[in-house]
Amino acid sequence: MSAVKIEMLPAQEGDCFLVSIGEKDKINMLIDGGYKETYYEHLKPRLVEMAQKGEKLDLVIVTHIDSDHIEGIIELFKENGNSKKPSIIPIKEVWHNSYRHLQFKVDEKAKLDFREKAILSEKIAKGYESRASKNESVNQNKEISAKDGSTLAALLYSGEYNWNTLYDEDAINYDTKDMVKVTGDITFRLLSPDNNRLERLRRFWLKELRKDKYNFKLTDDKIFDDAYEFFMLNLDDFQQSDENTEISSKEEKVDINSLLQRKTSSDTSPVNGSSISFIIEYQTIKMLFLADSHPQLICEKIKRLKDEFSYNTYFDLIKVSHHGSYRNTSVELLSLIDSSCYLFSTNGKKHNHPSLETIARIISREGEERKLFFNYPLPHDYFSDEQLKGEYNYSIESPTENESTVIEL
Fold first, then answer.
1. What DSSP designation does 39 have?
2. Do 142 and 29 share a structural domain?
3. What is the pTM (predicted TM-score) of this model?
């Protein structure tokens, strides 16, 4: 039996990973939860199966607030109830950065006035409506507040979960603690976010509030957590356009050299930039999980590891950032890291992820054979060409529909 098992669940265009480490005293980690459907169709049955075997989730990591990462997590905590008497599975620790972790200077004595409460309630209402399914109607006159308990922050509060306790209940933050021992032989090396990325997100949220009221008071009222989460979930991925649009669907082959020469932009989303990204180390095994992180920040932290600690940045597994978008996997980043195993989590139905440029950048480098793992059959089949596989020394692994992709190390 392998010491490490990674399950990449079908999560549409989102992320949902189960990581199990060890054999006798197994440690289980859940990294993101995909969409609501991901939870009910795939994740919940696995968690029930694990619980029946006496297993628990030692760590749940919510990398950032985005529907394709957090919706399934919200459903899990809705159903799981109180941490002391869980209905689905015991959960030991949760990592999640919410409003309370953005280091706002709050006035503990101040109280929100009527207009401020109305502004926050409106943001909650808009987010609530956008989350409602197409078949569900939302009562426009219903007062929506923190009491609804439908945000992850509210569920963690009411369920009394251990929340960021390995960071003393502060933000999961590189500049606070860049290395954490989860157990005696499992270490996390944090790469993102840092103070700068959290500050950008803080300013982004504050600017939004002060569009409506220039002197908006900040308090520690729990309604801020809910308004913040609903607002972030309601954001459109404004800078994302469909990728791979210049490749005709009728073309049988891609020109790798042409893809490598294309000029591409970088991701500037403050939400993606705040992603919790990390290296998991277990014995001699190292796994790099990049969430939707910005490549510039990851490059900076990887360079520091190499320069200060002579760290070997060849990984046993790399989860590619942002579903394989070229905006999140730069040439510079790939000059610093490598692996024989790359994971792409997407069904390709949003923004045509993964980008052809990203795959070309990965396979065009010299080295041993690289395996590209997908959790859906490739939406564009350009790289399944046997001649390309032979020339660039790579293989493609993908499941049939609605099956998890399993990697054992």
1. I
2. no
3. 0.91
